[in-house]
Amino acid sequence: MASSRLCLLLFFLLASILFISYPVHCVDEEDNLLQGLNSYRVSLNLTALTKNDNAACLAEEIADQFKGQPCTNTTGSNTVPGTEPQFPNLPDLLSKCHLNVSNTRDGQIMPACVPNLDPNLVLTNFTKTQYSDNLNDTTYTGVGIGSDDNWIVVILTTSTPEGSYMTYNAGSLSAKIGLFSQLLFFLMGSLLLL
Ligand SMILES: *[C@@H]1O[C@H](CO)[C@@H](O)[C@H](O)[C@H]1NC(C)=O
Ligand SMILES: *[C@@H]1O[C@H](CO)[C@@H](O)[C@H](O)[C@H]1NC(C)=O
Ligand SMILES: *[C@@H]1O[C@H](CO)[C@@H](O)[C@H](O)[C@H]1NC(C)=O
Ligand SMILES: *[C@@H]1O[C@H](CO)[C@@H](O)[C@H](O)[C@H]1NC(C)=O
Ligand SMILES: CC(=O)N[C@H]1CO[C@H](CO)[C@@H](O)[C@@H]1O
């Protein structure tokens, strides 16, 4: 009960931030994976990854691109560590999330396909593959997760500007006005729920 209310609240918060401009998922797979990844980090004596909503936006967009493709289609998912997988329409996806490649290039995009997103398989897909080298790297401090269908995408972000996933209109006047109206929307949404 409490958790479904929290989920609804979260939905309102997200919807108000994004004006429902891209699909919002309130899925447990993503939370499970975040916890699993952070347990893995702690087991390696590294700090837990903090959530990065802008990276999650891009992860969601990329997962949306993979949706419907069979797991055997490894286009883009056979990544070489340290290189960005090639997504033909990455510039479009970045702009949907108000991101500039100059603030994302040091991040790491890691897509994986797991039938029905089985939670245990999903975690091992990141901790027991070449991706684990990225997780065992102090360079990365943040994470955004998105999923669609059988695909789940993890994006690691850094604390440097080149990998911060900072949006380019952050701090502008219109962004501040936007934030204010989003806050109002969120408060109204919360009131309705109480
Ligand atoms: C983890 O960190 C603690 C405290 O900094 C240290 O005592 C311990 O040896 C570290 N363990 C590993 C595996 O690095
Ligand atoms: C595999 O992925 C590529 C690139 O996204 C796409 O063009 C192609 O149609 C996909 N193939 C199948 C069988 O889904
Ligand atoms: C992205 O950043 C580069 C360098 O800071 C800048 O020249 C370019 O105009 C930016 N693009 C967008 C869409 O903001
Ligand atoms: C993680 O990185 C450290 C330092 O590079 C290395 O000693 C350790 O073996 C790595 N652990 C795993 C599980 O990859
Ligand atoms: C990138 C990666 O490791 N993908 C694997 C995820 O798990 C499925 C099923 O266990 C494998 O088929 C993929 O190769």
From TrEMBL:
This is Uncharacterized GPI-anchored protein At5g19230-like domain-containing protein. Keywords: Signal. It comes from the Eukaryota. Residues 30-156 form the Uncharacterized GPI-anchored protein At5g19230-like domain. Residues 1-26 form the signal peptide. Pfam families: At5g19230.
